[in-house]
Amino acid sequence: MIRHLIVELGPFALILIVVAFFLTKLYMIYSKGLGKHFGEVFYISLIPISKQGIKNTFQDKVKKYYRASNVINYFFYGVFALSVLVYAMMKSIS
């Protein structure tokens, strides 16, 4: 029963995780006052940025965003990987 539910709703849950990730990033960018450079900041921050890379950034707003973005990236990538793993396991059983 639960396996069937996971197999049926798994793709929707994965899409929901991606949308939540995008909306969280969007909120973080605009809350830090970086909306003017949304595209550039968003695409750069999709992969975690090293501590040295953050230190070499000159603007304090961007530094704060990159630090918060790294935490968001690790959290959402972990949740997404776990969800894909559970979905794949349940799909292979059925």
Biggest sheet layout: none
Helix content: over 70%
Which of globular, elongated, flat, extended, rod-shaped describes the shape? elongated
The number of distinct β-strands equals: 0
Measured between the Cα atoms of the first and last residue, the distance is 11 Å
Quaternary organisation of the protein chains? single chain
Order of helices and strands: HHHH
Structural class: mainly alpha
Radius of gyration: 17 Å
Please mark out the parts with pLDDT under 50 across 5 or more consecutive residues, or reply none.
Answer: none
Mean pLDDT: 92
- The total of helices stands at 4
Strand content: under 5%
Helix and strand topology:
Layout: H1 2-31, H2 38-44, H3 51-55, H4 60-93
Helix pairs in contact: 1-4
Q: Your description of this structure?
A:
- By secondary structure, this protein is mainly α.
- The chain is 81% helix and 0% strand.
- It has helices spanning 2-31, 38-44, 51-55, 60-93.
- Helix 1 (2-31) runs antiparallel to helix 4 (60-93).
- The termini are close together.
Provide a compact summary of the structure.
The chain has 94 residues and is mostly helical. It has helices at residues 2-31, 38-44, 51-55, 60-93.
Which features would summarize this protein structure in a list?
94 residues, mainly alpha, 4 helices, 81% helix
